[in-house]
Amino acid sequence: MFKKILVALDGSDLSEQIIAMVPQFHLQSDATVVLAHVIINLGADPDIAVDRPQADTETISHQQLEKLQYYQSLLPCQSEIEIVMGEPAEEIIRLVLYCSPSGTLCND
Q1: Cβ neighbours of residue 19 closer than 8 Å, sequence gap 6 or more
Q2: H or E stretch including 32?
Q3: N or C: which end of the chain has fewer CB within 10 A?
Q4: Number of CB atoms found within 10 A of residue 36's CB
Q5: Residue 47's pLDDT is what?
Q6: d(CA 77, CA 45)
Q7: C-beta of residue 37 within 8 angstroms of C-beta of residue 59
Q8: Strand partners of residue 80
Q9: pLDDT of res. 54
Q10: Helix residue ranges per DSSP H, 4-81
Q11: pLDDT for 18-40, tens place per residue?
Q12: Distance between CA atoms of residues 93 and 31, nearest Å
């Protein structure tokens, strides 16, 4: 069974549908869901290390952070929020490698 699932959310209406799918996995109480959100860094400097654990919370809107926390409250198991900055596809792959999930849901 799934022990850890990475759920990549972009804040769109599709995010609501993705969160609604999580209970269909019948997760045990010891499972963990990692809610990931990537802040697109349009002016990224390629010489700066991208291996940073989390983006500064000041770079994400208060409304978006509240939405992630709301999604977290809906989950039937343990959960974490990962907010990273960069190019979404690259960051999601990096999070997959970092978090070692047994499943991934993505709408980015």
Answers
A1: 7, 9, 71, 74, 75
A2: strand 32-40
A3: N
A4: 27
A5: 53
A6: 37
A7: no
A8: 34
A9: 45
A10: 13-21, 62-74
A11: 999 998 988 888 899 999 999 88
A12: 21
